[in-house]
Structures are given as structure tokens and as C-alpha cells.
Phosphoribosylformylglycinamidine synthase subunit PurQ (Leucobacter manosquensis), 235 residues
Amino acid sequence: MMPRIGVVTFPGSLDDRDAQRAIRRADGEPVALWHADHDLQDVEAIVLPGGFSYGDYLRPGAIAAVSPIMTEVVAAANRGLPVLGICNGFQVLVESHLLPGGLIRNAHQQFIRRDQKLIVENADTAWTHRFQPGEEIVIPLKNGDGGYIANDETLKYLEGEGLVAFRYAGVNPNGSLNDIAGLSNERGNVVGLMPHPEHAVEAGFGPDTPEAMRSGIDGLRFFESAVEALVARAA
């Protein structure tokens, strides 16, 4: 059987269907989860997608973090369930205290959309083990509140424990401290990042590469990593 991976839809989610499609392309079974429910439907992993949950009122991700479904997501993540937060989903993970720090308005105060180079820093998580440490990948980025911040103590902790999952390469698009584009928790089951891997899963619809226009599929390996880990766990 294909691993069942839930995708949460909040009011204002934009990329939930894209995440479901990415899961299918990685040979997983996407399961739609609703923000107002407490039922995780026995999924084996969860994706919190991009968008503007609850209109980004108060702070991006702040209201979603206290939605009914997140009570269950936080408890499941603390038990070891793999959880991936993409863009607004990363903001929700931070607001839920599953990952440390905060995300604020981009340094230039403008929404940005670009194909972004990243350096893989941590390839030892449920969502990144199909990458190599130090590998450069290209993932689409689109956000207005993507500047990662944390105090000095937290930054030292993240760096010292190897919990920075991805860094921006070539250009820091939003002023994130230490060029941080994504994080992992210590257990390696929770990963959050600002760029959108679900938009780089099929040739013809991804970023440009030296080989061909729109041919980049680096994002697919996020979902393949999770599916592979879940299949191995079930074996």
C-alpha cells in the first residue's frame, strides 16, 4: 500500500492541491485534512502547505497555529510523525513552537517570486535524506514574510546542532539571518522551509535548468524522501 500523507487545508491555503499532486508523483497517497477537524485520518505524515492561512491576520501562521487540527498535528509531531511545513506552513510550525525563531516581512518590504538556489545543509531528516549535504538545488520561492529571525542563543543552538536544513545560495532574497531558508527539529521528523518544493516535481512545470527550460524537479525528492522512509518503516 502507498503511504498516506495528509495535506492540511486552512482558509486561505493556496498550494494544498499542488502538495497533494507532489505526493502522488512520489507514489504516496494524499489525504485531505481540514483545519477545523481533530481527525488526522490515520495518516503517516503531514504537509502544511503554502498560502495565506486565515488571511495572515495578526501574524502569518499565528491563527492557524491554534486551529483544531494543529492540536493533533503538534501532538503527532511530538510522537515522531513526519511533518513538512512549506512557506506559510513553515510559519505555522514556528508559531506552533515545533521549530524555533520567527518569520517577518522581507527586508525589502516586497513580495518576491524567483527560482531560488539552496544549499542542502541537513540531509538526515525524514524529508531530505535523498539529498547530499552541500548539494545545490533550485526550488521556487514566493513570499512576503520570509525573513527568518532568532536571537543569538537560538542561532548558536541551530548551527551547533546542525538543525539548519537549507541556506539561500547566490542571493539572500528576504534578509534571513545566517541565510537560513529551512530548519529541522532535533529528531529530524519536522522540517520547515520557505521555498516551495511542490512547484518543482514535474519536468515542464519546474524551474529552468541548464538542460532545458522548466525542467527542474529538485522538489520531488522531498516527497520521495518521506515516502521512502515510510515504506521502509512499514517493511
About this structure: The chain is about 25% helix and 25% strand. The two ends are 11 Å apart (CA to CA). The longest strand covers residues 112-120. The mean pLDDT is 96.
